[in-house]
Amino acid sequence: AADAAMYHAKTLGKNNVQFYSADLSRVVHQHLLLEANLNRAIRNREMVLGYQPKVDLRTGRIVGAEALVRWHSPERGVVGPDKFIPIAEQTGLIVPLGDWVIAEACATLRSLAELGVGQFVISVNLSARQLRQRHFVERLAATLREHRIAPNALELEVTESQLMDNPAEALEALAQLKTLGVRLSIDDFGTGYSSLSYLQKFPVDVIKIDRSFLGDVASDGNAVITRAIIALGHNLKLEVIAEGVETREQLAFLQDHECDQMQGYYFSPALPQDRLSSMVCSGVRMAL
Ligand code: C2E
Ligand code: MG
Ligand code: MG
Ligand code: MG
Fold it and tell me: How far does the signal peptide extend, from start to end residue (predicted)?
């Protein structure tokens, strides 16, 4: 009986191993498939930027927008960045993709300038891997020149957790970028483990309060954190923007606590470029 039990355990174990390896190879296979498709997608111009308006909380005016990439896949339909950015980061495809995002955002800034819109800021999200690239700063400078964009019309968002992964290295990269005159912001603030001494040293202009804290600003914990982040930002002479604002209550809370800007579905999701342009040109304001 003992032998039988042993035999049973072995076959079970063996089957388990086979099960896991079959599963793993399926994951690897899907990953390779996605990687190949992503490569092709970049070449075939299947990537599209959406622009989510950012609103000044004192005036209700649209003062900028965040560029968010989407993949219009012929096979899968519209694919969100959470599905492919991590793979693009792992495979290095984030470098050509990121270059494209920046160039496209600059082209939109140029077209807004041609339409007579002054003082508009577009932000793009950067991966740590892009920051680490050699000659990133020089290439960025060339792209800005090529599109005749004032550097302070472009903002680069890096998440707090990516910055804090290697804060010394990040500090150096940000300092170099800052010499160009672009704006810098810390995305998803409050979700990483910030070293406050670094926060003070980073040459950033903006902190973005992560939307998880706004989820329920009526709850004591979130209200305290949101207020603390706004105060921290202002004490460090930074602008503070709240992302993921969905309700009138959240908006009122942010106004009461003098948050500078907001973005979120309450006002607008990310829009195609032409819709952003017509909103901005027609001077649409958010009712405060
Ligand atoms: P993120 O930079 O924190 O962008 C905010 C995300 O929240 C966006 O999701 C946006 O559509 C979503 N959002 C905006 N307002 C609301 C709201 O009121 N409620 C809720 N529930 N969500 C809201 P999206 O577009 O799926 O992007 C996800 C993440 O993908 C971004 O987070 C950013 O980290 C990354 N990402 C997007 N585009 C790029 C890119 O070009 N390069 C890199 N490296 N990452 C990107
Ligand atoms: Mg962002
Ligand atoms: Mg964010
Ligand atoms: Mg995020």
Answer: none
Which residues, 6 or more positions from 170, have their beta carbon under 8 angstroms from its beta carbon?
A: 128, 131, 158, 162, 163, 164, 202
**Which residues, at least 6 apart from 273, have a Cβ–Cβ distance to it below 8 Å?**
49, 51, 108, 111
Q: Decide whether any atom of ligand 1 lies within 6 Å of the 130 Cβ.
A: no
Q: Cα(17) to centroid of ligand 4, in Å?
A: 35
221 exposure class (CB count in 10 Å sphere: 0-12, 13-18, 19+): exposed
Pocket test for ligand 1, best of 125, 162, 187 (most atoms within 8 A of CB): 125
Q: Which band of pLDDT confidence, cut at 50, 70 and 90, is reported for residue 27? A: confident
Give residue 215 CA to ligand 1 midpoint distance, Å. 16
Q: How far is the CA of 232 from the centre of ligand 4 (A)?
A: 21
| Ligand 1 atom showing the smallest separation from residue 127 Cα | 44
- Tell whether ipTM is more than 0.95: yes
* pLDDT at residue number 30: 75
* pLDDT tens by residue, 208-257: 999 999 888 877 778 999 999 999 999 999 999 999 999 999 999 999 99
